[in-house]
Design a protein that fits this description.
The chain is mainly α. It is built from 12 helices and 5 strands. It has a single domain, classed as Rhodopsin 7-helix transmembrane proteins (Rhopdopsin 7-helix transmembrane proteins), CATH 1.20.1070.10. This is Teleost multiple tissue opsin 3a.
Amino acid sequence: MVVYIWSLNISSKDTSALNQSGNVSSGDLLEPHDSPPGLSRTGHTVTAVCLGAILLLGCLNNLFVLLVFARFRSLWTPINLILLNISVSDILVCLFGTPFSFASSLYGKWLLGHHGCKWYGFANSLFGIVSLMSLSILSYERYAALLRATKADVSDFRRAWLCVAGSWLYSLLWTLPPFLGWSNYGPEGPGTTCSVQWHLRSTSSISYVMCLFIFCLLLPLVLMIFCYGKILLLIKGVTKINLLTAQRRENHILLMVVTMVSCYLLCWMPYGVVALLATFGRTGLITPVTSIVPSVLAKSSTVVNPVIYVLFNNQFYRCFVAFLKCQGEPSVHGQNPQHSSKEDPHVFRPCDGASIHRSAEGPQKKEQHSLSLVVHYTP
């Protein structure tokens, strides 16, 4: 009996060492050899609290968006379908990603094994890139709407469905290669989350990290800045025509652009920078704290996105308020209830507007040019 207790104590003390040797012998790279020591118990607890808050708020916020979208038919427009795609990808992260990192942080170690780690890395990368691409596509669609001289057809969803399908296919294009030998999915930071193996120094891994940074993080950012910058320039042109109302609109658009781009940079750029430092910096440069903070910030986008894109979308905001008050379908334009819900919600009256079309009233009034502002844009 004494011998049995002694052997039990030894095995419990050396469990981590035995598991590590077993993983290495079987090719299960759950603990990189050059990884720094893990977080303290306090660090794991703080991380778990942050991830728990992100999990709760992310699920609630995106669930509200989905319920509001399902409740009000006036929201069923092509451009809002892209907004819905963002919420779907974010809530999938909350359901299939954050709970596992939350539970692992509570226990201080990864709980799902080698294959679970690969699935977690793939799923989070897939849904994250879908969200990023959808944000950039949304900015382009908003900019393109300003350039259209005719009212958008809200019954034509083909373009929107192509954009949604394209975001998922594009994401799959960049998240499947690690399963095919181009880089690899594995543990990151203190070992309670999994992602692309940034620390690997092979040629294939370095090339993959660079492509991922350029085409899945930097490219969407450049597209967002370009499109929203163009929108601001168009709005500035309107201020010369109707100073008061257009100035308000310009301030609203400026606030929206600064908030969206700033939140994008805050949530995703630290993660990209840390990944580059882990790839090209010296071994051990990225500590567990340095690696876990950007990972938590990236997951916080699931909370931030629905807040930004609902609060800055007048149509969604009115429907959201009506949903909370258990009211019926709000008017599309928020003021005149006579408007039909089938009317394009992205076409506003002159006081809301941005795209400018000059037209003559007729041959007999050729010298009197009327100025009409037609807007195909909802911020």
